[in-house]
Design a protein that fits this description.
Blueprint (H helix, E strand, L loop, with lengths): L17 H4 L9 H45 L6 E6 L6 H8 L6 H12 L11 E6 L3
Antiparallel strand pairs: 1-2
Amino acid sequence: MLKYSTYRSIYNETPGSPSACRSSISDYMNPSEKNIKAMIGKARGILTLQDIFKLVIVFLLIISGFTVVSQVFASSVSSPKQEKRIVVEPGDTLWSIAVKNKSSDMRTVVYIDAIKRYNHLNSSDIQAGDILSIPVYSK
C-alpha cells in the first residue's frame, strides 16, 4: 500500500476544509457536460485552423491566376498591320529569324509563336528553302 499520495478524494472532504470552498461552476456539471464542452472547444480550434488553411489555398489560387493572366496580357501585342515573306536560308532557326524581325519591345518567344500561327506550324522545325510569312507589327 502507498504510504504517501497526492491523490485527494472528493468524497471524503468535510464542508469546512479549504478545498471544499474552492468550487466553480464546472464542478457542478456532470462529467459528460464537461467532456462535451471540452470537445466543442477543441473543435472550434480545429475549425479555425481548417478555415485559415482554406483561405490561404484560395488566396494562392487567386494570386497564381492573376499572375498567369498578367503574363498573357503582358506578352500579347497588337495585331499585325502587314506581313512579310522570307525564304529560310541554311542555318536559320525560328529564333534567329524572330530576333532579326521582331520589334524591340516584343519578347522573342511571343514573336516565334506568332510566326508559327501565321504559317500553321506545329513544331519549330524549318528547312532551308521554306517560305515563311512573317508578321510585321507597328512600333
